[in-house]
């Protein structure tokens, strides 16, 4: 499915009936051949935006998966870059990927809701992982990021404008979230992945409550919608002293 190198429909079904951690362990060898991996166009756009605000010394890729975001960090960090994920399978794939020479690289297995670091980083990025956290978990998640950033450090991640109800994509995402809610109501362990639960307004409010000063930066490569609003933005939240 998706491509000759991608997972089969049966493999995706087995993953969807597993826990999040075990599901990604199963998917890891073929993850980069699915639409679930952050597109290179998004990674490149974020890297370009961060180059203008860096350089940074030490960076962390939160929920790094197979490590696509680590190349973004390597472009803007001079000291070290660290990827953390709770899937051992994803980290195994990430370690085998070729990486350009540059800052020191480390891989850590751990939970984003209980990060095993002190104030060690100047930059934390994350790509495509927030659907795995329920809205009630965001305060704790943002609090963890705040705790591992040095004062003045930046938490950066891209957000895409949601599709309008007149677009097919709106109904696809709505249907996916509805199917996941039904699945989690009747099957254990749960598999948390909701595309429409990460609302920009609520996210900005929670970042402010956590102690971040937040800026929104359009990613011009993705253009604008009919109303003039950007199709994609970079949230850059700075930890206040």
TrEMBL record:
Superkingdom to which the source organism belongs: Bacteria
Domain spans labelled Methyltransferase: 60-153
InterPro entries recorded: Methyltransf_25 (IPR041698), SAM-dependent_MTases_sf (IPR029063)
GO terms (BP aspect): methylation
Keyword Lipid biosynthesis part of the UniProt annotation: no
Keyword Iron-sulfur listed: no
GO molecular function: methyltransferase activity
Keywords annotated in UniProt: Methyltransferase, Transferase
Name listed for the protein in its UniProt record: Methyltransferase
